[in-house]
Amino acid sequence: MGRRIAVTVAAVLVAALVLVGGLWLVQRELVYVPSRGPVPPAASVLAEAQDVTLTTADGLALGAWFVPARGQRRDVTVLDANGNAGDRTDRSSLAAALSGRGLDVLLFDYRGFGGNPGSPSEEGLALDARAAHEHLVRDRGVAPARLLYLGESMGSAVVARLAAETSGAPVAGMVLRSPFVDLPSIGERVYPFLPVRALLADRFPVTELVAKARVPTTVVLGEGDRTIPPAQSRAVAAAAGGEVVAVPGADHNDAVLAHGPAVVGAVVALADRL
């Protein structure tokens, strides 16, 4: 009897190890949800928008759109980092709204997203954001002090790291929409039965990064967000010493959070402080 129990326990342990090991191997396929593309030409979606190619430090060519300001220019440029789904076409309404308020906008897709080569990872997305920053500063002559970062959900982690890494030439500020504390804290919600914190290779420690970046920060959150708990977004704002704009009843993927007046207004308010 004891031998039978021991064999059963051993079999269960082996099965658990195989499951955990398999999840570790495919974890990035579970974390990232890219739109494979292709993406149409910029001008076919937004009038006067320009197709741009960004070159990363590891040699990838990434597609991007530069959307020039319309009307009275504010002489401020917004670098937008997407969330963990879709591609830059899904941000066209956001870019149009910001452009209409006199702001230049750069939309770009990460590696593996929007028809771009490569596979997404935390380090890879950091390289992609640096390429976007270099394009604006080096190729378009945008002064860092006239540059704002806008991060959407996971993109908040991307721009927070970029701000921390470029603190020697700080940007004007950041707007973080629905940021999380770190990726493991979200993974634990989705997979409460797994040792997510021990397994995850990509961490995205947003609170740590915003505290290090020390730039003016506004956090926009939805009070009805079922993907990123509003408490986590508030914790990010507290770590940054920033402001909170809460949208009553808004869920994570609602249009009001994607390109509504709360997000656009938060960006414009930061721009007007310059």
Automatic annotation (TrEMBL):
Q: PANTHER family recorded for this chain?
A: ALPHA/BETA HYDROLASE DOMAIN-CONTAINING PROTEIN, XAA-PRO DIPEPTIDYL-PEPTIDASE-RELATED
**InterPro entries membership:** AB_hydrolase_fold, Hydrolase_4
> Serine aminopeptidase S33 domain: from which residue to which, for each copy?
92-185
Report the source organism.
Answer: Actinomycetospora succinea
Which Pfam families does the record associate with it?
A: Hydrolase_4
Name under which the protein is recorded: Serine aminopeptidase S33 domain-containing protein
